[in-house]
Design a protein that fits this description.
This protein is an alpha+beta fold and 131 residues long. It has helices at residues 2-5, 80-92, 97-109, 114-129; strands spanning 9-12, 19-24, 29-34, 40-44, 49-54, 62-65, 69-72. α2 (80-92) packs antiparallel against α3 (97-109). It is globular and about 45 Å long.
């Protein structure tokens, strides 16, 4: 939604699962794993924005616009436990059992380690506290 409100364009996502994203932090490249649960993805960046992370599932996993806007496609705030609870709730609300089981298997294969979750969680909390 941020990309769209700044002049970019969104489209229906082809995939939405946990996976590794590669990032370019300027002089240092990195890999990080985040849970991805989304229907839309950025297909055209706003003018002046640059991609800072991508993955095989999503070309724009994260982007920056100037020095005050940083957007992440995945969900750094989602722990494995939260995703597991979401799968259970969806299964109780009519999600087919085979789909729920696939989700559980995917979660086991694409677990987000506690250190990564805690790091992203702190970044999100710190961002919300800034004036």
């Amino acid at each position: 939604a941020v990309a769209q409100s700044c002049g970019g364009r969104l489209s229906a996502a082809l995939q939405g699962q946990s996976g590794d994203g590669a990032g370019d932090g300027g002089e240092a490249s990195f890999r990080i794993r985040l849970h991805q649960v989304h229907q839309d993805e950025v297909v055209r960046l706003p003018e002046g924005a640059r991609v800072v992370a991508s993955s095989p599932e999503c070309e724009v996993e994260a982007f920056a616009l100037g020095t005050h806007v940083f957007c992440v496609q995945g969900h750094p705030e989602f722990s494995d436990a939260m995703v597991s609870e979401m799968i259970d709730l969806k299964a109780q609300s009519g999600l087919p059992q085979d789909t729920a089981e696939k989700g559980r298997r995917d979660l086991q294969q694409h677990s987000v380690d506690a250190a990564t979750y805690n790091k992203w969680s702190q970044i999100c909390k710190d961002f919300l506290k800034t004036p």
